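Bug: token stream looks shifted between consecutive jobs. Job 1:
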Amino acid sequence: MKLPPRRLSIAPMMDWTDRHCRYFHRQLSHHTWLYTEMVTTGALLYGDVARHLDFSQEEHPVALQLGGSEPADLAKSARLGEQWGYDEINLNCGCPSERVQKGAFGACLMNEPQLVADCVKAMRDAVSIDVTVKHRIGIDENESYGFVRDFIGAVAAAGCTTFIVHARNAVLKGLSPKENREIPPLRYEVAYQLKRDFPQLEIIINGGIKTLPEIDVHLQHVDGVMIGREGYHNPYLLAAFDSRYYGDSTTPKSRAEVVHAMLPYIHAQLAQYGPKGLRLNSMTRHMLGLTAGIPGARAFRQALSDAKKLSQGNPNLLLDALQAIEPLAA
């Protein structure tokens, strides 16, 4: 299977980009790359592998993001990811949360570029699929371009050719993960300079990007754009990606068609796992933003948030919600 280029991707987001969210996003775009939530090596080596790695074949192209700092453990986890059918293994060097720091991985790894290089080499030796790195542009108050340049140089020497650059510093003490996504200033020019200095590498930019015109501007300077929370809160943005960025002439699904496309999947998931193993809300919660910006959006969200109806586990709740926006969604 020939994979599409990583011109557009949806960021790994904890508690959000699970398999149900990714299946939903795939109804909107065939070519956009999708990423799992970060999965720690410990969860894979000592936990329920199927729970963390199972996904639907329709999700391709899909990447597994790993959190860890032990080369041997990352190699074993990457091998599991390849065996389960993922198209890419991504190493998290950008998460600033204290929990991740206590595990000595995430953004703090940027202070140890040789360790990251060793991790990348171990994973590349273990798998035949791409191994990529997602990182910040600096740590705490260090805004030196040389810091991130040297980090990429060291990791690229280990064979990594794709870097996803979240264009903010990570503040490891004093800011929450949410604040780390909002307070450190965005410095897109750093990612642009990285592409100029490393033209042979694939540089993908991430951070605060919300509109198609913004994406257009970034693609003049780098190879790809990764969308974060805007892709979750306003998922219908993805409906324009295939034609605009991949030259796909297929007519995108309307919002109503997306809802109808989700129904067989939701029915199948509930039948497979049962109400005790999977709740309807586990899937419908990812769809709340589908009608963002159009009349009826609030009523749509309210219908999908009705606790009493959700508890009944009837997927036809989606059809009730759809009535709030039809015929606009048709």
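Job 2, same session, no restart:
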Amino acid sequence: MAEKLTIIGGGMTGLTAAYLAAKKGQKVQIVEGSDKIGGLLNTFEIGGNQLEHYYHHFFTQDAELHWLLKELNIAEQTGYYNTSMGVFRDGKLYGFNGIIDLLKFKPANLFDKFRWGLTSLYLGKVADPTKNENVSTLEWFYKYAGKGMTNALWKPMLDIKFGPYADKVPLTWMIGRLAQRLNSRKGGDERLAYIKGSWKTLLDTMKAELEKLGVEIITNEPVTELMVENNQIKGIKTKSLEISGGKYLVTIPSIFFDKVKGLPADFGGKNIEYFGAVCTILELKKSLSDIYWMNVADDGFPFGGIIEHTNMIPKEEYNGSHIVYLSRYFAMSEDLANMNEEEIKKVMVPPLKKINPEFSEDWIKNVFVFKTNTAATVCDLNFSEKVPACKTDIEGLYVANMTHIYPDERSTNNSIRVAAEACKVMGIDTSDVPYGASLSGKIGF
């Protein structure tokens, strides 16, 4: 008789775990609280095509995601693109793609730039992320990269991404981030990958394959209770279902655990905080800039990143429209956490004229706003001590969620890595999943 596995949460971690378990002959069901699977990978229609609510691309070194695309027979739908980066600082846009651009960056002097280059290379190529968890990124930069580039670049970027937690970000996280970016570059060019037809291609194919493998996908059923007897999980209850037997893997963000009866007070990183994120997506008649990824390092802007999607994917894919993401992380204590869609639009759009003085709201064809309260975990010093063990103290109950991405950055690839490690802990053979450059799935397994 096939073993039974119930997965709570239908994001990428849950979907991948279901795929891996079902491939090995287990009877699998996914229980998702919302009306569709996919989580942060979901898309909408714009310019006659599909686009992610929150910008997505992946890296050439993302071995786990490349493996999954090949497994699903959609690897040939991957495109690779040279992209550009820029920094908006002191009211001016600077390219940031190599040595020449660095030398042209006026907010810092030559010595500051030299120190910045050396320290960035050290962190991205040499430093050991496992030995720097108790070190503040910001303090390290001030000490080794110097005040010039730290004040001109690093501090503004940490402030806009981490808000009140900017001085608590462990150096471990920054090492992982720089390693990811540097390994995706050849010379000064960064090659990024994207799936033709958007991540909807991946989700639709994944769903079809899961159904072919006999996986039952249940949506609109948030879990309300875990039934535990003698420290062993017997089943779960949702708003209208009761499921019993087998093992259970929880993949939902830990901020939802308070809504589930029967969980111990310290279960699965229950007290870990999360950042929210908002993406305001503009469909424009004209291009805002020639930069794909622009970091906004000046004070007073409501967004920290401007990602012009059609500077990676040709605008012809969107009926000639230019697609721009205005991105901002936020702490739950910030005003943005409570703003509605119309309020967000009013805040986000007007400052674009400071970025491009020619910008006019007449350029706008459509504006879309997407907001989540579970964009990333708040990773502070020694965060690994908060990451829960995948195998819980309750027999038959396992957890693998966004906390296990640490010390890496949230990504589709890292979710696959975490799912593979969770399956391994549950006794499922995942030896066919390759190891890439991911730092995820190493803590708690």
